[in-house]
């Protein structure tokens, strides 16, 4: 002990001569501006993600339904309720809040004789401190529990990829995947939005734990096409990702791909440990080897059904193979997913056209149930003057012919009509073929929609431009100019709006604002249609149809004919993950029907 330690206590005597501070009304005493008092929550900004509930070690927070707040994509409809008998005012709930909706006021006094009143829903239960601006908020200057910036996926530069169809997105390394997975707060908002309700937080946790076999098992619980989906899923889950409210959403699709890529196909049976040797003696026919048909076959095989898929094209995949270019979805990755389904005992008969080679009614007699997932393989026409010319094509036809290895007409100038992903796919495919043939690209895509409302994924538009294609949106096609039987180009007028105030399709144009796109070939890509020619007239009379011409089905995709189930693109439109979810639900419906 030194002399300072001995003398320091005596310094307190200096306070003897000071005038004491008297607080006459302690209940109105103001706390320091950054004091951690009672909670406040902006319930409009809050999405009920539950990160506050998950981080609270005292279990002081529960998510509860709140009047006037509805459940929707990206919002659970729940809001945090705080039990102040448990709360320790640590503010971790505020610091983790992904929407910055939660804060602590500096109000700390609350007198009530009813202890139940101290279980309180901030932003809902009326209290006076709502108007207080002081208190604890999440600190700025990059103070976050997770990184706001996603780990970019590496890809080949435009000049490296423009003259080939090789896959240009490289995939995550182990270090990149684990760094991106660390951004996840495991809120589950993504799972609720995913049509297949995949266990997204669980498989991302498996990446953090470096247990990719467990990640694969989680994937296959709800999605038997992880290699495919990890590349071309429309990833609506990312649109609602809670960390995307104050930063980049998590790269959920790429993390799914990482798990599938790192697990070798020859180990799938060992990892997944799925026994399909026990048959229940019942047979199911599936029409179409697209995502919904493959999904239905997978889950039915696990339930002991003998499944036979009838596919009219030479290989499995449906529009995934014959409508999506190989640079986005390599064929060997389709085969990896398909081959595992075949290992489970599913049989695919190729080159079989239902309706001509085998009648649908015959399938109904030969099998206990039938699932149809025939996809959208037909193109739709604008029906403007000139569309009957031989050099006016549908995008769906050209994409299929490219996959089949056929020689297609590739002139020096091409115009594509359409603003969706299929339009971008055919634009980029034709640009590649032009580059290979002529050493240059002259391919233009135009659409009714302005760029801000184009249905194509933003990345598709950006990548098309990187590959020297022109994307010029906001024009309505009026006519294809024909001279001496040959296409000369496309006449368009400026589109002022696409939808009316009720969001019904009702385009309006400025007829005086005209433009001409020179072209030797025009490709229409304004939508896809279903081919229901396999349904006889008599059979159609047994079914019910929607106003849009789709077959009416119940929640398990069962049609008006008891043994016929219908799903996939022809029911819910072109989307792989919806098709997978449809096939899974239909498999449950078929099992319900056949096992009562």
Can you describe what's shown?
The N and C termini lie far apart (86 Å). This protein has 4 domains: 113 residues, Alpha-Beta Plaits (2-Layer Sandwich), CATH 3.30.70.3270; 111 residues, Alpha-helical ferredoxin (Fumarate Reductase Iron-sulfur Protein, Chain B, domain 2); 169 residues, 3-Layer(bba) Sandwich (FAD/NAD(P)-binding domain); 151 residues, FAD/NAD(P)-binding domain (3-Layer(bba) Sandwich), CATH 3.50.50. It is of the alpha/beta class and 596 residues long. It contains 22 helices and 21 strands.
Topology of this protein?
Elements (H helix, E strand, L loop, with lengths): L2 H5 L31 E3 L9 H5 L5 E5 L12 E6 L8 H5 L5 E4 L13 E2 L14 E2 L21 H4 L12 H8 L7 H5 L6 H9 L3 H11 L3 H7 L3 H4 L12 H11 L5 H5 L10 E5 L3 H12 L3 E6 L7 H4 L8 H13 L3 E4 L9 H7 L2 E4 L5 E2 L12 E3 H9 L10 E4 L3 H18 L4 E4 L11 H9 L3 E2 L3 E9 L2 E14 L5 E14 L2 E4 L3 E2 L7 H4 L23 E3 L2 H4 L3 H20 L1
Parallel strand pairs: 7-8, 7-10, 8-9, 10-21, 12-19, 13-14, 13-19, 14-15
Antiparallel strand pairs: 1-4, 2-3, 3-5, 4-6, 11-20, 16-17, 17-18
Key traits:
596 residues; Alpha-Beta Plaits; Fumarate Reductase Iron-sulfur Protein, Chain B, domain 2; FAD/NAD(P)-binding domain; 4 domains; five-stranded parallel sheet; 30% helix; 17% strand
- CATH H-level name of the largest domain... which superfamily? FAD/NAD(P)-binding domain
Number of individual domains:
4
How do the strands of the widest beta sheet line up side by side?
Answer: 9-8-7-10-21
> What would you call the structural class?
alpha/beta
Name the helicity range: 25-40%
At the fold tier of CATH, the topology name of the largest domain is FAD/NAD(P)-binding domain
Q: Please tally the helical runs, counting DSSP H or I stretches of 4 or more residues.
A: 22
Q: What percent of residues are in strands?
A: 15-25%
Radius of gyration: 30 Å
């Amino acid at each position: 002990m030194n002399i300072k330690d001995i003398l320091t206590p005596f310094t307190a005597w200096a306070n003897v001569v000071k005038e004491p501070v008297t607080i006459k009304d302690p209940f109105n005493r103001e706390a320091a501006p950054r004091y951690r008092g009672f909670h406040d929550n902006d319930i409009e900004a809050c999405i009920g993600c539950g990160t506050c509930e998950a981080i609270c070690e005292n279990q002081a927070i529960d998510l509860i339904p709140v009047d006037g707040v509805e459940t929707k994509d990206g919002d659970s409809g729940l809001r945090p309720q705080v039990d102040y008998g448990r709360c320790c005012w640590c503010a971790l709930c505020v610091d983790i809040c992904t929407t910055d909706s939660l804060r602590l006021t500096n109000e700390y006094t609350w007198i009530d004789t009813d202890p139940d009143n101290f279980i309180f829903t901030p932003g809902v239960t009326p209290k006076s401190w709502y108007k207080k601006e002081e208190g604890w908020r999440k600190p700025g200057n990059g103070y976050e529990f997770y990184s706001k910036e996603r780990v970019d996926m590496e890809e080949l530069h435009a000049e490296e990829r423009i003259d080939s169809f090789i896959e240009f997105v490289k995939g995550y390394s182990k270090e990149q995947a684990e760094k991106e997975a660390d951004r996840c707060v495991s809120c589950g908002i993504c799972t609720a939005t995913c049509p297949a309700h995949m266990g997204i937080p669980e498989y991302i946790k498996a990446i953090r734990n470096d247990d990719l076999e467990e990640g694969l098992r989680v994937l296959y619980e709800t999605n038997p096409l992880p290699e495919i989906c990890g590349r071309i899923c429309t990833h609506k889950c990312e649109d609602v990702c809670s960390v995307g409210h104050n930063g980049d959403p998590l790269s959920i699709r790429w993390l799914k791909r990482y798990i599938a890529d790192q697990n070798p196909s020859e180990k799938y049976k060992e990892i997944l440990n799925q026994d399909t040797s026990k048959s229940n003696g019942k047979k199911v026919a599936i029409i179409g080897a697209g995502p919904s048909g493959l999904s239905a076959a997978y889950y039915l095989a696990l339930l002991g059904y003998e499944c036979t898929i009838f596919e009219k094209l030479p290989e499995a995949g449906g529009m995934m193979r014959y409508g999506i270019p190989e640079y986005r979805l390599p064929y060997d990755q389709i085969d990896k997913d398909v081959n595992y389904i075949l290992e489970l005992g599913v049989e695919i008969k190729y080159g079989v056209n239902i309706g001509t080679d085998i009648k649908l009614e015959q399938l109904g007699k030969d099998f206990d149930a039938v699932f149809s997932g025939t996809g959208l393989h037909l193109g739709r026409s604008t029906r403007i003057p000139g569309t009957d010319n031989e050099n006016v094509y549908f995008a769906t036809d050209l994409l299929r012919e490219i996959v089949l290895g056929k020689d297609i007409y590739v002139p020096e100038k091409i115009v594509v009509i359409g603003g969706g992903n299929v339009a971008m796919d055919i634009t980029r495919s034709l640009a590649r073929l032009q580059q290979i043939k002529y050493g240059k690209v002259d391919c233009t895509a135009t659409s009714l929609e302005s760029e801000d409302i184009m249905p194509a994924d933003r990345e598709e538009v950006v990548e098309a431009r990187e590959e020297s294609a022109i994307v010029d949106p906001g024009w309505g096609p009026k006519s294809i100019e024909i001279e001496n039987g040959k296409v000369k180009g496309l006449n368009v007028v400026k589109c002022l709006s696409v939808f009316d105030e009720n969001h019904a399709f009702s385009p309006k144009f400025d007829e005086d604002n005209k433009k001409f796109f020179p072209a030797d070939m025009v490709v229409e890509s304004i939508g896809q249609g279903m081919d229901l020619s396999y349904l006889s007239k008599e059979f159609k009379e047994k079914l019910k149809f929607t106003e849009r011409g789709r077959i009416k089905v119940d929640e398990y995709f069962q049609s008006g004919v008891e043994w016929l189930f219908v799903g996939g693109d022809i029911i819910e439109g072109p989307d792989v993950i919806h098709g997978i979810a449809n096939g899974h639900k239909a498999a449950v419906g078929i099992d319900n029907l056949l096992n009562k």
